Amino acid sequence: MSLQEQIKSTIRDINDYPKAGIVFKDITPVLATPKLVKAIASELRAQFENEKIDAIAATEARGFIFGSILALELGCAFIPIRKKGKLPYATRSQEYQLEYGTASVEIHTDAVKPGARVLIHDDLLATGGTAGAAADLIKSFDGVVAGFSFIINLSFLPGEENLMQRYGVKPHYLVKY
Ligand SMILES: O=P(O)(O)OC[C@H]1O[C@H](OP(=O)(O)OP(=O)(O)O)[C@H](O)[C@@H]1O
Ligand SMILES: Nc1ncnc2[nH]cnc12
């Protein structure tokens, strides 16, 4: 079985979570399979090891899991982007659109050095709102968005087109639905 097939056969679909009509892609069975986690880590490393990347910026909460594994694999810094009110030092916020209403994420003001090449990682790309807000934060400190990395792309939603249009880079992902 290919890595893609292994990932897809291990992800669990939860119908109507967190609300009616949503099919939630649950990665916890993947996390419970150490061999698969290791294979994903190797694949992520292979995707980016020849690129110049100074830091991985990942979004709370699920983005932290493979985001920190990837930072370790590449030997680069890890930058946490968190939901409002969770980071202890001085922060900058960015609002973004949810399906209904808005949300806000934050970064520490000393996290991104001007010119730093930052790869944005999250577990899943849906509308691209979360990853776009992370990219806007990186750019607001004159960091360079080196790319986007996801485990899952929900390709029936416009996340990939939105990120390509706004930042001119094609997102990487391991599996799509
Ligand atoms: O492309 P988007 O439409 O922005 O959706 C993708 C985001 O949604 C999920 O996070 P969620 O907000 O559910 O938070 P969690 O990781 O803390 O569960 C997922 O982990 C991404 O961060
Ligand atoms: N269908 C989905 N499954 C898991 N996380 C998500 N974030 C946004 N949509 C999602």
TrEMBL record:
Entry keyword Cytoplasm: yes
Domain Phosphoribosyltransferase: 35-143
SUPFAM superfamilies tied to this protein: PRTase-like (SSF53271)
GO cellular component term, pick one: cytoplasm
Keywords: Cytoplasm, Glycosyltransferase, Purine salvage, Transferase
Gene3D superfamilies for the chain: 3.40.50.2020
Identification of the protein by name: Adenine phosphoribosyltransferase
